[in-house]
Structure formats: C-alpha cells, structure tokens
Design goal:
Length: 267
C-alpha cells in the first residue's frame, strides 16, 4: 500500500497541474483565478498593514530607547554642571570674603592665610567654635583667627580635618591691647568675661581712655599681630584706691552668627 501511495502522489500533482494548464485560457480558468485573487488580495493587504504597523512599532521603541539614553546622558551633564556651578559659587563667596578682609587696616600680605567655615559652636555660644580645617590643611595650635579685621580667637585643638577655636570671649584667652583713639595709646590686657563680654585691665591711672574708643591688639604678647580690632569701650571703671583702672569692652559682632573666618598661620 505504501508503494502505491508513493506512485499516486506524483500522478495526482501532475494531473492537477495539467488540468490547470488546460483550463487556464478558458472562462472557467479565469473564474478560478478571479476567485483565488478575491480571496488572497484582502489577506495580502491585511498582512502589508500589519507589517507596516510592526515596522513602525519597532522604530518607535528604538527611538524611545535612544531618547531614554540621551535623557540619561543629559541628566549626568546637568548634574555635573550643577556641581560646577555650586563649586564656582563657593569660590566666588570665598573671594568676596577675602576682599572684605582687605578693606581693613590690618594687612595679611606677609602672612599665610586660610579661609575656613564655622561648623559648630560651644553650648554657651561664645567660648569656642569648630572650623572645617585641620592638620591636613596646615592648621596648627596658636594660629590666629579673624574676620573682617576683628580678632576672633586662636586655634587651641587640631585634628586631621577639624579644629577648635577658643574665642576672645573665653577667660582662657589673654590679649595685649591699646586704645587706638587715645593720644597716649593707652595700653592694657583684655580677657574674656563670662563668655559674653571683655574686660580690659592693667590700665595706668594717668592714662586716658574714653567710652567709644576702639581697642586693637598691640602685638606685644608674641601671639596676636598688631592692629586687629578687639572691640569698643562700653564703660570705664576707676579704682577706688587710685591704682589701676579697667574698662568693659564690647565685641562688635555676634559670635554665634559667624559663618566664615580667616586663619593667620602662626609665625
């Protein structure tokens, strides 16, 4: 049976082909072609539309992926640009801060200086504060700290990245000073009092000192350079025994609002 089927299949194909060839020029053949065409043409149109749709869909997803990659790259560039802008802003603010320092009579051109940010305060708000500079930046104990020509204090504790500055409001700091407005340049010693004010002592009774006079560093103590502003005289106290006088000195700014300071390297 299998051998018979093998012979019959080619014969059937040959017979069908011969039949179609014979009727191809007849009306019946044209009718068959027309019927076949009517059946397959709509299918062809549908397949073509589906193909174009799939092609457009593929192109859409490719373009979407490309746009996503471009947006990712643009996001990275924007982040880098924002970082650069922030860095430039910090540099500009530091330059403005340094320009402010140059507006005062005290000159730091022969000294090594370093700008630092204030990052923390003591609990009492006046005795000490922390800056974001340390050994890695070349900061040392006894470096002088100023802002806008005013004496702030000196570095007393240093680690790798941070330092503690003890302010002149602390009783631990003693500064040799003089009265800039006095004809005799009255001298004395200033120490912090209760972390809130300053007391100028060891003023000779014959020396003149008046309320409102500006007190500056004399530079005679070997630590603080001459010419830094300490404050202004708020009150003068005469000794009942006629010996040494004293004066209350008011700081000219709020230590708790410090944001940036200038470090003067110890010589």
């Amino acid at each position: 049976m299998s051998a018979r089927k093998t012979y019959l299949q080619p014969l059937l194909v040959f017979g069908l082909s011969l039949f179609l060839l014979l009727i191809s020029g007849t009306f019946f053949g044209k009718f068959i072609r027309l019927g076949i065409s009517s059946f397959y043409l709509p299918l062809t149109s549908i397949f073509n539309q589906v193909g174009r749709g799939l092609s457009n869909e593929i192109i859409f997803w490719k373009n979407l992926k490309k746009l996503s990659n471009e947006n990712t790259e643009l996001g990275k560039l924007l982040a880098e640009r924002n970082s650069q802008i922030a860095a430039l802003k910090e540099v500009r603010e530091e330059n403005e801060f340094l320009k402010d320092q140059l507006g005062f009579s005290f000159s730091t051109k022969n000294s090594k200086t370093l700008v630092a940010d204030v990052v923390g305060f003591s609990g009492d708000g006046g005795s000490w504060f922390t800056i974001n500079r340390g050994l890695d930046d070349g900061v040392s104990v006894n470096d002088v700290v100023i802002t806008e020509g005013f004496l702030i204090g000196k570095v007393t504790v240093v680690n790798n990245q941070y330092s503690r500055v003890t302010s002149i409001l602390s009783p631990e700091i003693t500064v040799n000073v003089l009265d800039q407005d006095s004809q005799t340049q009255t001298s004395g010693v200033v120490t912090g009092r209760f972390n809130t004010s300053l007391l100028m002592e060891k003023i000779l009774p014959e020396e003149i000192i008046n309320i409102g006079d500006t007190i500056i560093t004399s530079g005679t103590d070997g630590f603080f350079p001459r010419g830094l502003i300490v404050g202004k005289v708020d009150a003068v106290f005469d000794s009942s025994s006629g010996t040494l006088k004293s004066a209350e000195i008011g700081a000219q700014f709020d230590f708790r609002k410090l944001e940036q300071v200038l470090i003067i390297k110890a010589r």
